[in-house]
Amino acid sequence: MNTQNLPVAALIKFFEQYFPLNMAERKEVAARFTERSVKRRGFILQQGDVAKYFTFVVSGCFRQYVIDETGKEYNLQFAIENDWITDLCSFYSETASNTYVEALEPSVILQIKHEDLLYLYTHYHKFDRNFRIIVEKKYIDLQNRVMQNISVTAENRYSNFMTRYPNLAYRLPNIQIASYLGITPEFLSKVRKKIVRPA
């Protein structure tokens, strides 16, 4: 089992932020995660499909979004290198997703199926703890975002976005960031100018 290929090595390094992995655990990572390349604008999940995979981003950038009845898109989250993305509700409940997950850049990912992740939880408790931390962080991010949308100005939402994704502003078009912040691209341009050159 080649645990030395670069994508798997990146994933092992990610896991070892929390707990060191022994050789058996490293082999399970190599065996149960599948590497995949995704072209820009390629989908790894579409509305109505069941989210069968939990996805680790080795390189590239993804967005998760929903579309309302008028056709307007709303970005829910972004995922770049060393981050995870899926529709957690669909993945864990094995029900149809209401969201899309799309590559914004050519990307390389590692994916694990629901049943393989449950196997790791049962047989290697370190992974149970690792993924609990991952899901808890995703929940905290979501809660903070909801709170910001309720009570924080657009300027502060943009500042918080830059703290959360410091390099992403240079990789994404304004329309994607504006959708995430809940503002128009034109208003985002005004916010940026105001932050760069405060009145």
From TrEMBL:
GO molecular function: kinase activity
Lineage top rank: taxon: Bacteria
Annotated protein name in UniProt: cAMP-binding domain of CRP or a regulatory subunit of cAMP-dependent protein kinases
SMART domains in alphabetical order: cNMP
InterPro entries: cNMP-bd_dom (IPR000595), cNMP-bd_dom_sf (IPR018490), RmlC-like_jellyroll (IPR014710)
Domain Cyclic nucleotide-binding residue range list: 17-120
Keywords on record: Kinase, Transferase
